[in-house]
Amino acid sequence: MSVRVILPPSETKSDGGKGAPLDLDTLVFPELNPIRKQIGEALVALAADLDASCKALGLGRTQLAEVDRNAELWISLTRPAIERYTGVLYDAFDYASMTRATKAKVAGRVMIGSALFGVVGAGDLIPAYRLSGGSKLPGMRTIAATWKPELSHSLDAVDDFVVDLRSGVYHQLGPVRGAVTATVVTEQPDGSRSVVSHFNKHHKGLIARELVRTRRTVRDINALAAVLSDAGQRIEIDGPDRIVVVTD
């Protein structure tokens, strides 16, 4: 048994790529491909109607390029998922700075949640696209209803210690039985605490980074807390399946 980390996706994604167009059969959990194809085809069809795309995807007039990305879903170039997603969490994870050996561990330990794909492996080749977990495509159920319960079935079959760093709706697409989750809180001088999304994303990126860099075996929540504490994070264990990261 090893540790497996599930990251949330990001709305922002890098452009371009050098990989061949999307091939669903190369993605992890190929049993999910019928749902991936259904959602992908609906997304491409939606792209033919600019106004409907903006409404369904919550896009403003300055984001129309996102519709073009969706229109070219099956034909655009691809790149590894860990390089496709961008933003605060992925900046903290800092994949580009990792050694070749650590990047190899990323491929085996990291997965990324996705409204379109359910979940992908860090090394899976995917195109740029726009679809959020809270979206509802015309003629389909909500994204959450579309993925339940198939995504959970696939993730529950993973024979590893799972640290699920997805948040909100992406966690609900397919909860993992027995997975450990993480909450990041900011502690004020008076002892009061609050959840702040920016720090939440940043520290989850740091958590994932330490879990691919560590040489220690992480098979339970106590080992997880020890690795993160040794890396300088203030960690509290809150029950059998949740850690709390406390920041100033």
From TrEMBL:
Taken from the UniProt entry, a GO cellular component term is:
cytosol
What protein name is recorded for this chain?
Peroxide stress protein YaaA
A single GO BP annotation from the record?
response to hydroperoxide
Q: What is the lineage of its organism?
A: Bacteria, Bacillati, Actinomycetota, Actinomycetes, Mycobacteriales
| Organism of provenance | Gordonia amarae NBRC 15530
Q: List where the protein spans the membrane.
A: none
Q: Which domain of life is it from?
A: Bacteria
InterPro entries referenced in this protein's UniProt entry, alphabetically: YaaA (IPR005583)
